[in-house]
UniProtKB/TrEMBL annotation:
This is Ribosome maturation factor RimP. HAMAP family: RimP (MF_01077). Required for maturation of 30S ribosomal subunits. The gene is rimP. Residues 20-92 form the Ribosome maturation factor RimP N-terminal domain. Transmembrane segments: none annotated. One of its GO terms (biological process) is translation. It comes from the Bacteria. GO terms for cellular component: cytosol. Residues 95-158 form the Ribosome maturation factor RimP C-terminal domain. The keyword Aminoacyl-tRNA synthetase does not apply. InterPro entries: Ribosome_maturation_RimP, RimP_C, RimP_C_sf, RimP_N, RimP_N_sf.
Amino acid sequence: MAERVEVMAKKDYEKMTEELITPIIDAHHFELVDVEWVKEGSNWYLRVYIDKEGGITVDDCEVINREFGDVLDEKDYISENYIFEVSSPGLDRPLKKEKDFARSIGKDVEVRLYRPIDKKKEFVGVLDSYDKNSVTIVLDSGEKMTFEKSAIALIRLAFFY
């Protein structure tokens, strides 16, 4: 039963954080990429990922951290001890929101599945289309493959080194 409460708190903390931080991020003309409440080792982390055209700097993260830190102190809606972090999502960030998919049409993506298809769990191709439930990529061979979003463990831009 305790685990269910923890999961509900995670969703609630993320939602409340998103609602409270969005006006601050919008005022600085940044984009809110994601909010996550995660436990790593013995510590809880409240992480906010922000971005802007040309990329986020450490100074940008510090501004949001300072301004939202005041809101966190005032609202005090998280009962656990935690570490608050503001970060850039990085180049290899997952595609999660509709705008992530829209901006990635025509780009190379890496798709990792929970369960293999023909003994393969990883596919790389050009993002062709997406909707609420599925993602379609075009493989190097020209073959189109459509994946249900519920079957995708991770989808992100592919980078070749």
